[in-house]
Every structure is written in structure tokens, then in C-alpha cells.
Fold:
Amino acid sequence: MATHCVNFCASSFHNKPSSSGSRSTVEKKWLGSIALDRKPKNLKLSNGCRARAALNADSIPIEIPRQWYNLIADLSIKPPPPLHPKTFEPVKPEDLSPLFPDELIKQEASAERYIDIPEEVREIYKLWRPTPLIRAKRLEKLLGTPARIYYKYEGVSPAGSHKPNTAVPQVYYNAQQGIKKVVTETGAGQWGCSLAFASSLFGLDCEVWQVRASYDQKPYRKLMMQTWGAKVHPSPSNITESGRKILLMDPSTPGSLGIAISEAVEVAAMNADTKYCLGSVLNHVLLHQTVIGEECLKQMEAIGETPDLIIGCTGGGSNFAGLSFPFIREKLDGKMSPVIRAVEPSACPSLTKGVYRYDYGDTAGMTPLMKMHTLGHDFIPDPIHAGGLRYHGMAPLISHVYELGFMEAISIPQTECFKVAIQFARSEGLIPAPEPTHAIAATIREALKCKETGEAKVILTAMCGHGHFDLPAYDNYLQGNLVDLSFEDEKLQAALSSVPNVGS
Structure:
């Protein structure tokens, strides 16, 4: 029997409901190469369904969402504002102008429900979007579970993860404003690669500070960034004042995302032709990632499924927000009621072990203070292999949603994550990056519970990237050398002691 992917066209993403007269036409287009007038009964989303980014050989052209979704517009209680790092007063737009272009500053503070995606950005998105929604039938069979497991796979992008969803618009807006260079930090390297990729398309210079632990663990990420024209430094470095201070205190430090952010922000603030780009945490970053969830809603609707549980890994939170925020909108509208679960590493558990307070986004205290779940901006996580999750804080908007009770959070150690990653790879064929193995681990936990109870839950999980450049981590696991890393309470309390006592 032939296998099929679900493909979509632009008409399925208009945010206003279409008339009943045009519905059959729209539904027909949604199914792309299948082109059925009715819902297919046995549509296969796995075992041969992989992304052909722009066009299937036997189908109409695939298009992507026309708008990003802003969850803030639908929250009755708005998130607390960021504060100026010196005055502790709410940040004004002009305070952010040394770091960001005007349009991104507007998006950061926007209360509009939808923001149009520029056509130039949509054209680049077509290189890999829409991304496939895949049913993990072989994993289900391996587990013997009645649960139906779906994963939204973002590893088909040029950089191999979800990060280009925001890298492309960020570089686009900088280019529109005449900026010549962008700087950033990166952990595992997915974000640095994505920004390097986007910069190469728009002709901007790109400079990246990569967390030292990941710089050493993942040399091919560095080469990938360099291939796209970026200059890459291990962080902390001797190039910046903030980096030199850290090295003076601890020459062998593994680094952290907070330190790398400080270095990139320092360079951007000192050069008028340079702006800073961030790969997670901020509102405009989460906004851009909602293309994931908007696509997924339509894909699940086309096959007649509604998720009972949505699971995603969280570090700064962009991938999790990108998938879950459109579903939270539907939940607030009373259209569905899924449980939404964030999964973080036990070695860096900001949601489950941190405090909800104002804190700096970087180690040196150069960024605005944000109300978020934090382990303290001085907290340096152990060098786990999920480098993209080694951040001391959680995105303020995710923290706010968590406080409002719209989602829950758990933490899982890395040995369990790699164990299930092997199961996943040997059943579904895809080797996941270390970051989404946390979501896979939580998914398998739930699927095994369903096996015990007999519940046929629909579980939707975020598979945010492939692990092709993370094979040394898999080697460590397979050789029996991977251990779980944690921290003493004294380390956490010491880091929290530096958190400013400001705001409510």
C-alpha cells in the first residue's frame, strides 16, 4: 500500500473561518497528493513519510502559515514587563534599540493576536516547510501500547532543527534596517548554525560565541557555521571583557549560555552596525516558532485526531512554545483540552527547581531583567550533552503560562533520555538530537502507562531536530560512559543568592 504525507496550501491557514461553501474545496487541497473529498480512514503518517519541503512530485505546491500567533493577546492576565538592568524600571523601546532592529522591538511588545509573515520570509520557509507530522507506528508496536503517538519533525530544515523558523525573520528584519552584522550565542550549535544559514541568504556577517562544552563536544556544528560564513569563538573567550572575567575566575569553565549571551551582547552594544540575535526566551522568538503549532493543528485536523497530551522539551522554550501555544489558544477557546507538559533536564531544571523572580538573561547582568523561572544567572549547569537546554532561565512567557496553570513540567535525567533515543532510532529510523530525547522519554513514559490502563490516548510530541552531529554523545552512551549529572543544593542556593530582589 502506498504511504502518504499530509500537505497543505495557504487557504487552510487563513485565520478567519471560511464559509461552508468553500470548505470542501479547502479540505480537498489540504490533502495534497491524496486529494480526497472525505477524511481518509487509513492515512499513514509514518514509515516512508518524510518531508519534501516545497513540492511533492504528484501534488499541488505546499504553502505555509501566513501569520505568526501571539499568545499574549489571548491571556486575560498579561505577563510582567522586562526591567532595565540599571534603573529596574520597565524597559522602553529605545532601551532595546542598541541590540535589536525596530520591527523586532515592536513584535517583542506586541499585543496583536496575529502578525503577518513577510513574503520574503515565507519564500525561504518553503525550503523546508511545512514539516511532517509523523505517526510513530513502529514505536507504538515496540512498546505494545494502545496510545497513538505523533511527532512533529523539525529536523528537515537546512540546519537540522526548528531554529531557522526564527533565524530567517530575525536576519530579514536586520537586513531591512541596513544592519551589516549580527552576533549571537549558541549552545549545542543548532541556533548558531541557523543564524549563519540565514545570514548567508541575506548577505550579513555573522559572529557566534559557542558554549565551550559544546564547542569541544560538537566540532561539526562549528564547521557547519563556518561553511555558511560565520566566525565562531568558544565561550568564554578572551575577546570580550565579560569573557575575560569568567576565565580569570575559572580558566577551565565549561561555559554556559548565560556567559555566551553576555559576550555577544557586549559586542553588539559597542558597534553601531551590529545587532544581537537570540535563539530562544524572548517573545518575538517564540512568536516566530508558532508556525510549528499552526501547521500541526491543520495536520491533525485533516486526519481527524485531537491530542490528549502534548509534550515538548524546554531549555529556553522556543520549540515547546512553537508547538504548544496555538494549541493553548484552542484550549482557551474551549475547542480541545489537552494536557501540555514541558520536559527539562534534571541537571538544569529551571521550571521544576527554579524560583519565579526577576533575573538577568545573561551572566554579566547586561540584559534586561525578566520575570521567569530561574536557577540564578550565575548558575553554570554541568556539561550535559543536551547543550541547547543548558540555560539558567525559562522564557518569561512560558513561565507566565506555567504560573497560570495552563501547563505542567517534569525533569528527566540524560541516561533515560539516551536509552529511549536508541529505542526511537531503532524503531522509527530517525536519530534525535539530545534535546528532544527528553520529550521522547516523557512520551514513552506516558505510552507505557496507557499500556497498563488500556487508554488509547493521542500523544503529540515535538521532535525539534536530528542528532547527526551528536553521535559522540551516543557513543558515550553505547560504551557505557554516560552518567547522570546533577547538582548540590548548595550550588543552587549560591546561584540564587545573586538574583536581584526587585519587582513583585
Q: What stands out?
A: Confidence is low (pLDDT under 50) at residues 1-61. The longest helix spans residues 437-453. The first strand starts at residue 67 and ends at 69.
